[in-house]
Every structure is written in C-alpha cells, then in structure tokens.
Amino acid sequence: MQNKEVISLSADVSDHSKRIHNKGMRREALPRIRHPEPPRVLAGDCAVNVSLRLASPVIRLLDGLLSAQECDDLIAQAVPRLQRSVVIANSGRTQVDRGRTSESVCFETGETALIQRLEERIAALLRVPVHHGEPLQVTRYLAGQQYQAHYDWFDPDNAGYEAMTMRGGQRVASLVMYLNTPEMGGGTNFPNIGLTFTPIRGSALYFAYKAGEQASWHAGMPVLKGEKWIATKWLRERSLDASGN
Ligand SMILES: O=C(O)CCC(=O)C(=O)O
Ligand SMILES: [Fe+2]
C-alpha cells in the first residue's frame, strides 16, 4: 500500500492529540487530509484526474480542478481588488517582501458563490472541512514578478509561531490552482528535488508537508512573458473557525 505517508501523518496526529491531552484540554479527533490518488478523484461536483504522484515529498498534479469559465470568473472577481502581495514574517506579522513581487486578493471564506463552490470542491477533494482552509488568495504575477523559494509551513523556532498557529495550528498542505497558462516562465519549482511544474489553466498542484521538511522548498519562478494567475489554498491541521466547525 501507499502508506508510508499515511503512517507518518497518523504519527503527527497522535503527537498532536497527546499535546492537547497533556495540556488537559478536550481531546479532539483531527480529520486527516486525504492525498488525492490516481487515476481520478471525485471532488464534489467534479472529477479530477491525478496525472502525477510523488510519494516523498507528497506531490500531486491535478488536471481539471477548475473549468476555464471558473478560472476567468475568479480572475474577474480579483482584478478590482489586487494589492501588493505580502508574506508572513518570522514575527508573525504580514509584510511586503522583495522576494514576493506579485499582487493578490484575499477573499473571505464563502465570499462569493464561486468561491464557496470552489471551497466545497477542495474540501471534498481532500476530505477535510472547509474551515481547515485559509481564505482563498488569488495572485497575479506580471512579467518579471515571482515568489522566491520559501516554505509554506511555519517554522516552530520563529518568534511569531504561537501567534500564527493559535487558530488552526500548523499548515499541512498547499493547493496552488493555475487560473491561466502563462506565455512563458512562471513554473512552480521545487529546487531541492529538481522539479518544475508548468502552470496550465484549470490544473492544480497539491503538496503536503511537515514542519522542517526541506523537500517542500518551492518557488513561483519569474514570469518571462504574459501574466500568471493562481489561486492558493493553504490547509491547516485544525479548523480556523472560532466555533471549531
Ligand atoms: O506561484 C507559484 O507557482 C507558487 C505559489 C506559492 O508558492 C504560494 O502561493 O505559496
Ligand atoms: Fe508557497
């Protein structure tokens, strides 16, 4: 079975439950993300082809997660609200950074009918409640813009770690959805494993990780010609909703 991944994730979950238990808090059963498995996964209202599967680090390439119309509509909803992208600094605060030169919009969970539909689709795809997802972020890179190599997980050694993880806990996976096909450049590159994914409209890159996992170091490479549009959903180990739903 494919299940080094499952075993290591279970280990995470039980460590986490122990931590909660030791603090004398209510023990909660943590839903586990399901990594999409080839050849095809039903994701609510659509079927997604899993065209690439890497066991370590956990990476999946998903074809047909969004229709062309959905990509165009999401871009249209983002255009009027774009602002310079930020990163979460070690302090836990968000700030503009020279390494991330794009513009983005952060939509509230369920903000529009389209966003709600996509969030429900992602939840079905990964079998994880909607509220384990951070608000959807839509990003536009113009020619020359990029997101230099980084980890999406929060470093437990950072001063801001507690603040960043107080609600929702650690990030455990990322879903980068490609909303267009850039004319040239703009691939998502994993330098430590020598892989670059080509953005193709409607497809998505899913990768899961644990804190400290260096293979998940990745970059949005500079766009060389045209524009690149993505929507990113970062997934947390617990619900971000104050009511715990
Ligand atoms: O632009 C890309 O290809 C990668 C984006 C990314 O790393 C992120 O949104 O966290
Ligand atoms: Fe990232």
TrEMBL record:
SMART domains: P4Hc (SM00702). Residues 1-23 are annotated as: Disordered. InterPro entries: Oxoglu/Fe-dep_dioxygenase_dom (IPR005123), P4HA-like (IPR045054), Pro_4_hyd_alph (IPR006620), Pro_4_hyd_alph_FE2OG_OXY (IPR044862). Residues 132-237 form the Fe2OG dioxygenase domain. Its cofactor is L-ascorbate. GO terms for molecular function: iron ion binding; L-ascorbic acid binding; procollagen-proline 4-dioxygenase activity. Keywords: Dioxygenase, Iron, Metal-binding, Oxidoreductase, Vitamin C. It holds the Pfam family 2OG-FeII_Oxy_3. PANTHER family: PROLYL 4-HYDROXYLASE ALPHA SUBUNIT, TRANSMEMBRANE PROLYL 4-HYDROXYLASE. This is 2-oxoglutarate-dependent dioxygenase. It comes from Dyella choica. The lineage of its organism: Bacteria, Pseudomonadati, Pseudomonadota, Gammaproteobacteria, Lysobacterales.
